[in-house]
Amino acid sequence: MHHKRGKIEFRVIENADEAFLLRVYASTREWEFYLTAWTQEEKQDFLKRQFRTQDEAYKRTYLGAVHRIIQLDGEDIGRLYVDRRDDHMRIIDFTLLPEHRGQGIGSDILRSLLNEAHGGKVPVRLHVEQGSPALNLYLRHGFRRMGVNGHHFAMEWQPDRRPREF
Fold this sequence. Notes:
Order of helices and strands: EEHHEEEHEHEE
Distance between the termini: 30 Å
Radius of gyration: 17 Å
Strand content: 25-35%
């Protein structure tokens, strides 16, 4: 996939990637620490535990999911976890590092997932944190809020199921 800034690719996750994945995860939680007086060690320790808990929950809940690291011109810039089922596609986790957000990369990747779902005529579902900047990305691409789940919105995108006119 080509983005105006370079070539976007997806690679399989290896054990050596844990530190990178922890960094990606931590980048989504930074705002929570503005109100704490924790030391850097306490923060890291908390994030590591939360990251492992999340990772184990994902693996338990979404057995067939595909976990990939997103690369831009060979540099690791984020993660994408997708669960493709017969009746829907679930974006479990889609995170770019902060320095790669707001440049259209997320939109490019999301559009390709929506094209795939459109081809299979299945809805795409995800949960997004209520305060997340990603919320606007999903709303712009036609996702609708379906409900609230704790601090998250459950969101869904529906493919056009009308028959094609010839």
